[in-house]
Amino acid sequence: MTKAKVFQLALESNQIKRSDLSNFINAVTQGNDLMLRNVQRAAELLKTFRQVANDQASEQLRAFDLAQMLTEVIDTLAPSLKRYPHQLMLDIPYGIRMHSLPGALGQVTINLINNAYLHAFEGRENGALRISAKLVEQEVHLFFIDDGVGIPEENLKQLFQPFFTTKTGKGGTGLGMGIVENLVNKTLNGTISVSSEVGVGSCFEVHLPLNAPDAPLPDQNSGQT
Ligand SMILES: Nc1ncnc2c1ncn2[C@@H]1O[C@H](COP(=O)(O)OP(=O)(O)OP(=O)(O)O)[C@@H](O)[C@H]1O
Ligand SMILES: [Mg+2]
After folding, report:
1. In the 8-state DSSP scheme, what is residue 202?
2. Which among 45, 79, 121, 156 is least buried, having the fewest CB atoms inside 10 angstroms?
């Protein structure tokens, strides 16, 4: 029986004591506080979802704080990442201001996180992925470092090739890294490189200009015969 029901029954049978009333008011106040806090959290989360979805759909250049934008992206992934026991660390100080395409950078981040969880930490109980950044003049250098299975030399060479996957028939299409490379090079005007050691882990290093040019770089294949 709920507290409200117990209280109602006591009220109806004229058995209410002053202490019952005061206990009931305390419980109601606590319940209201809890409800309010959760509604506020839900509203914050919705705002974050909307911002991330909007960035991905509109592809507009805007000013943003790198750590804040990546925190929002990771928050939207949290429900699916929670299913895994791995540790994701975002080690980027607030205050790195960029003027770029947050939707594209978010997409790159999501692909690299998903790859670490699906490939690097496959069958592991305690993978760790650390995302860090440093400023180098007018560039930001981002590092995605996992302590997973690593990538053998012969696969490293093909990593960015469309349809290269070690998960054929198990859900992989092999398009993720090609998309990442394209977004970094063409959309964000940056570069990406990867180093890896089998049994130790992988490091994806992304260099981006703090200020992306107004127009994305033209496709290298277009306009040429
Ligand atoms: N962090 C990583 N650790 C180990 N292997 C990786 C990592 N990231 C990528 N790989 C390897 O690179 C391959 C290609 O990655 P890519 O993201 O292009 O395709 P996919 O993840 O297999 O499929 P998709 O992303 O299209 O669903 C993967 O199949 C996997 O073998
Ligand atoms: Mg992938």
Report:
1. E
2. 79
Write out the two tokens for 177.
């890294």
pLDDT in tens, 7-41: 888 889 988 889 989 999 999 999 999 999 888 87
pLDDT tens readout for residues 170-221:
878 888 999 999 899 989 999 999 999 999 999 999 999 999 987 655 554 4
Kindly identify the ligand whose nearest atom is closest to the C-alpha of 119. Answer: 1
- Spacing, Cα 79 to ligand 1 middle (Å): 21
Ligand 1 pocket test target in 177, 182, 194 with most atoms within 8 Å of CB: 177
Ligand at shortest distance from the CA of 166: 1
User: What domains, with CATH codes, occur in the chain?
Assistant: 1-58 (no CATH), 64-209 (3.30.565.10)
The enclosing H or E element of 51 equals: helix 18-58
Mutate which of 80, 108, 111, 119 for ligand 1 pocket (most atoms within 8 A of beta carbon): 119
Please choose, from the candidates 112, 35, 54, the residue with its C-alpha nearest in 3D space to the C-alpha of residue 81.
112
209 burial type by CB count under 10 A (0-12 exposed, 13-18 middle, 19+ buried):
middle
Q: Which residues have C-beta under 5 Å from ligand 2, the single-atom ion?
A: 115, 176
For residue 151, the ligand closest to its alpha carbon is: 1
Give residues with Cβ within 8 angstroms of 134, minimum separation 6: 140, 141
